[in-house]
Amino acid sequence: MDFPLSASAELGIAAVAFGMVLTPGPNMIYLVSRSITQGRRAGLISLLGVATGFLVYLAAVAAGIAAVFEVVPELYLAVKLAGAGYLLYLAYQAVKPGGTAVFAPRELEPDRPRKLYAMGLATCLLNPKIAVMYLSLLPQFVDPARGHVAEQSLALGLAQIAIAVGGNAAIAMSAGSIAGFLARRPAWLRAQRYLMGTMLTGIAVRIVFERGTAQVA
User: Which of 89, 85, 168, 93 is nearest to 124 (CA)?
Assistant: First the structure.
């Protein structure tokens, strides 16, 4: 049996995955904060929880949850608007007076590995950016004409997870060094805040004006 994914689908999901890694959001903020305040090991344990959250969303998509959006387009619109609204809220938090940057250390109480894992999982599952990606973006790379729809969904999702985990692991491992570098350069720290706000706003606007509904997956 030939591999079901087209080259355009592979490149498309890779671009989305890289974009999600490089765009600050709840997952990155939590992982960076945890790595800075409790060490790299704590950040990587938290990342395992985030990765599990990715798998939960992937299982839902492969099981056909996205098909609901075909039947109830109003629900699809609600998901898009809710996710976009939350991203705009995060953008405002970044650029408002006194706002903080992703790499500004946040004081977190040390937690045991089990709680670190659970918090990483919860952060991912409650992240609207990830929900929108899995429930509305990933299914759009699935081509029903090629058959094996569930297999395509799994392959796309696993590719996204591999890129996301690798990228976030690199960020968690270097968070302390990056934070120290930015702390000595306040202008760069402010620029990072505004860059974060701009990127989050751009994604929110794109989500709102994106046309179409999710394909059956």
Answer: 168
Long-range CB pairs of 173-176, under 8 A, 24+ apart, other chains included: 173/35, 173/40, 173/43, 173/44, 175/31, 175/32, 175/35, 175/36, 175/40, 175/43, 175/103, 176/35, 176/36, 176/40
C-alpha 17/C-alpha 156 separation (Å) is 10
147: left (phi over 0), alpha (psi -120 to 50) or beta: left
Inter-residue contact 53 to 121 (CB < 8 Å): yes
Distance CA 104, CA 117 (A): 22
The Cα–Cα gap between 79 and 49 comes to: 23
Task: Give pLDDT tens digits along the chain (217 positions).
Answer: 455 667 777 887 887 787 777 766 778 778 887 887 788 888 899 999 999 999 998 888 877 755 666 677 676 677 667 767 766 876 787 677 765 555 555 556 778 989 999 988 988 888 877 877 787 677 777 776 777 777 888 888 899 999 999 988 988 888 767 666 666 666 766 776 677 778 778 767 876 776 544 443 3
Check if the beta carbon of residue 139 is closer than 8 Å to that of residue 66: yes
Task: Indicate whether this model's pTM tops 0.85.
Answer: no
